[in-house]
Amino acid sequence: xxxxxxxxxxxxxxxLYVLSKFxxxxxxxxxxxxxxxxxxxxYLAASGKQMFEPGFKKLEYGPVPFNLYPKLHTIKEDIxxxxxxxxxxxxxxxxxxxxxxxxEFLDRATEEYKDKSFAExxxxxxxxxxxxxxxxxxxxxxxxxxxxxxxxxxxEYIRFHNEDIIFGAEC
Length: 171
Fold this sequence. Notes:
The chain is mainly α. The chain has helices spanning about 10-20, 30-45, 70, 100-115, 120-125, 130, 140-145, 150-160; strands spanning about 25-30, 55-60, 60-65, 80, 85-90. Helices cover about 45% and strands about 10% of the residues.
C-alpha cells in the first residue's frame, strides 16, 4: 500500500474549485468533503481514474480526503479556516490540475448536494465503501468504485491500472 503525507496538488485545487461554487467561497468542511467524495466516487466508477491520490479515509460522519483533512490548517495561503466548521477559498483553483471531465462530476455533485443537511450528507456518504472500511483508515478504491455503480469490467480496469494498491474489502 502506498502511504502519502503531503497534500496532493489536485486534492487542494479540487477543494478550491468546489469552494468557488459557494457564496463568498465559504462552505462547511463536512459539506466540502462529502461533495468531493461523491464526485470522486462517481468519477472513479465512470472512468476508472482517481481524481487524486490516495483518496479518502473513513471517519464517523463520512469519508474525508485522506491528506487534505488533517493538513487543512497548513495551506493558509489558499484556504482560510473561518471557524470550527467552515472554510473559505482565498485563491482560485488552478484548472490545470482538474480535467474537464472531473469538473463535470464536481459540478454535478455540487449542484446535487449543496443544499443537503449534515444528516443527509452523512447518510448518503455512508455507502458500502464506507461500511467496508475500518474506522480512521484509507477506503478501498475498488469499494468506492462499486459504491459509485462500477461494474466488474470497470473494477478489473481499475485493478489493472492500480496494481500497486492492495486492498481487499468489497461492498
